[in-house]
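STRUCTURE:
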């Protein structure tokens, strides 16, 4: 779906550039969501004891499906989350890392130069992957960016592109059934998606 790919790619450019970042170095195709096992030591009665902190395990009521079509829809959601969640998490990493870089830049000229570089890097890194996204994956990415960054795609793009251009992209997205203003509602309409995301993060599915 070239239309949703264009929207998703512009979203990534807007978010990365709005932070006025340095280079994007991580390769998107290598990203995976891996649960972390923490190992450390603690003191107990004068002795040093090694411990392991296990990942959180989520327990939910078993899902029941009325028919095969409903079951297939759920499995498609799982696949879609596994596909786009790493991208949404990379966006969050870009924001964190580039905010730190921004602190070191001496003036607006230097910041603008980095903005151009990061835009080129994002296009080079993510464009091939964006072109492979299905329509439903592109829409899900927009929501998961909001989940990871606490900012809707519309807000992120407005910060970089301004209200006029962002309005054009919103209209473009709306024509194809998407919305850059769509927020993530973990306790409401996106409750099932949140369940899948948490279980994917924990390595349970």
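SEQUENCE:
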């Amino acid at each position: 779906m070239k239309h949703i790919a264009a929207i998703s790619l512009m979203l990534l450019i807007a978010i990365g550039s709005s932070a006025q970042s340095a280079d994007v170095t991580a390769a998107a195709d290598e990203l995976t969501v891996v649960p972390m096992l923490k190992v450390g030591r603690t003191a107990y009665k004068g002795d040093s004891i090694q411990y392991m902190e296990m990942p959180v395990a989520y327990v939910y009521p078993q899902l029941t499906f009325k028919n095969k079509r409903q079951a297939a829809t759920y499995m498609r959601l799982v696949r879609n989350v596994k596909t786009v969640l790493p991208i949404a998490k990379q966006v969050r990493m870009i924001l964190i890392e580039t905010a730190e870089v921004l602190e070191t830049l001496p003036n607006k000229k230097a910041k603008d130069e980095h903005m151009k570089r990061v835009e080129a890097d994002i296009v080079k890194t993510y464009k091939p992957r964006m072109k492979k996204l299905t329509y439903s994956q592109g829409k899900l990415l927009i929501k998961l960016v909001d989940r990871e960054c606490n900012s809707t795609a519309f807000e992120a793009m407005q910060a970089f592109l301004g209200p006029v251009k962002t309005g054009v992209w919103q209209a473009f997205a709306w024509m194809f059934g998407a919305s850059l203003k769509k927020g993530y509602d973990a306790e409401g309409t996106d409750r099932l998606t949140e369940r899948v995301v948490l279980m994917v993060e924990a390595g349970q599915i």
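REMARK: The longest helix spans residues 68-104.
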